[in-house]
């Protein structure tokens, strides 16, 4: 099984060289394992594109009433015009009143509303048109209404969606098309219906592939934007976004939330004596060790130079101290001149330290890190007053 998955992976990387890592491949199938930053930015992008589509439909939907007026009898035109203006009002409401809050479920709701409006219009107009005996140009224009599901499913291509998401969004339209055929079972031209349905499925597949390609490209861009290129830890800009997100969640849900500020001891000596390449190797080794041994759900951020911030959601002060103690026992790597790399560490937790915002929380942890340095380095400071503990000090 492992050999088969490796073969599939190598085939895919041949088709998309340099875009995804092997761990990110599963992100194309389901959004549940996406990073919070990726989910947040994707949610904003989806809502923005929903609003763009809503604008286009709000403008074009009533304009087509002019064509209906020319080709359809007045009672039919009047009923279709009412439907069109109702749809236009719904699209306009979506455009003016819907905004992204960075939540993925909010984005799902937006795209569901976008697809629901024309789907309901299609069902209502299709039912109305079948009650009239149309001929000539009227029949040709009336037949054009049947292409609305094709337009909707083709529209999936503009959204960066995973396979599961595309399937869920496309399913109601495909089901409506199937039910429509079933209700007209006795008078249906089944070869024509089967061909049209197969074309719908093909359009869904192509649009889903386009959405997956957009998602893969977005994953690659977000990874480059949020990661520090040297250590592969999160960058400071992405770290502030993660901090803001988790601090808001912690406040809203009354949950604990801790951070640890780490500063490598005597790092300037490594750069001065052995050069910046040795310093870079030290930073990389330290990051790899912390990433390997930190808890699932914690986030390591390179705050600047040899300073790192460890973000620990749903973690109380004593739990954070235990987690940091485990990292120190695992080690932060070896110094070029021999001996272990050590760090001075300050820990803070928002509720225990009464931090008003994430910036104040980081400032408290930073002050305790300096207290650890003043206390002799290679130690952890947490709580008030600042107790100092050291391993092997």
TrEMBL record:
It comes from the Bacteria. One of its GO terms (biological process) is negative regulation of bacterial-type flagellum-dependent cell motility. The chain crosses the membrane at residues 50-74, 80-98, 110-129, 135-159, 166-185, 197-222. GO terms for cellular component: plasma membrane. Pfam families: GGDEF. One of its GO terms (molecular function) is diguanylate cyclase activity. Its EC number is 2.7.7.65. Residues 255-385 form the GGDEF domain. Keywords: Membrane, Transmembrane, Transmembrane helix. It catalyses: 2 GTP = 3',3'-c-di-GMP + 2 diphosphate. PROSITE patterns: GGDEF. InterPro entries: Diguanylate_Cyclase (IPR050469), GGDEF_dom (IPR000160), Nucleotide_cyclase (IPR029787), Rev_trsase/Diguanyl_cyclase (IPR043128). This is diguanylate cyclase. The lineage of its organism: Bacteria, Pseudomonadati, Pseudomonadota, Betaproteobacteria, Burkholderiales.
